[in-house]
Amino acid sequence: MNQIESLKEKRIGDIVAKNYHTAGVFREFGIDFCCGGGDRLADACDKKGIRIHTVTEQLKPLFRKSKQHELNYSDWSPAFLIDYIISTHHKFVRKKTDEISAYAKKVAGVHGEHYPENVSIYKMFVELSHELIEHLEAEEKRVFPLIKQIEQDINNGTNPSQGDLESLRLEIENMVEDREEAGNIMAGIRTLSNDFQTPEDACATYRILYQNLAGFEEDLHKHVHLENNILFRKAENFLANVA
């Protein structure tokens, strides 16, 4: 029996405990992983009238082993790195912000009286989400196309326009400042959540929220590293060599 097949017999709560990202799939299908966490996946799907294959196909990518540690991002061209950032990290942000906001809102509403820090965490994450979405849209519409155009000009033996070069300088400065603000908000959430540690009486949604926040922070750090330390450095090298 392979790993995906064996999931059918596992309890929802056990699946989520092993891989918190699966909570997003169950939430999408309306499968209760909190109070209904004791149900087998097969039984939960039967109750909802959902074909189990439809659910396991969504779960499958979450259990594949990552090989990202083998990647050498510094060797990639700016254009290829941009495509990777969009398809991996921008996609992650767009998918996870709504999901985590929903968890945070629920936890703030249910547990906010006894654990008021969760009300602040919810408000801060909503603010962080808005900033990140605006940031990545600006990158995709302005910054990344500029980098690709300048890279293409250089590869073709053409001098990039001074207007493009100056715009890129300013855009990179703004992007780095925006990332610092986002990092500060995320650091504040970590502090309020006691380093993402839940109290002993925390329900499943409470635990899933904090696990998601920890994973979101990890992805954000990787995202910022790829942009600030690799992509933007390559772009700055373009500017220095052309100037």
TrEMBL record:
Keywords: Cytoplasm, Iron, Metal-binding. Its main location: cytoplasm. Pfam families: Hemerythrin, ScdA_N. It is found in: Cytoplasm. Residues 84-235 form the Hemerythrin-like domain. It comes from the Bacteria. This is Iron-sulfur cluster repair di-iron protein. The lineage of its organism: Bacteria, Pseudomonadati, Balneolota, Balneolia, Balneolales.
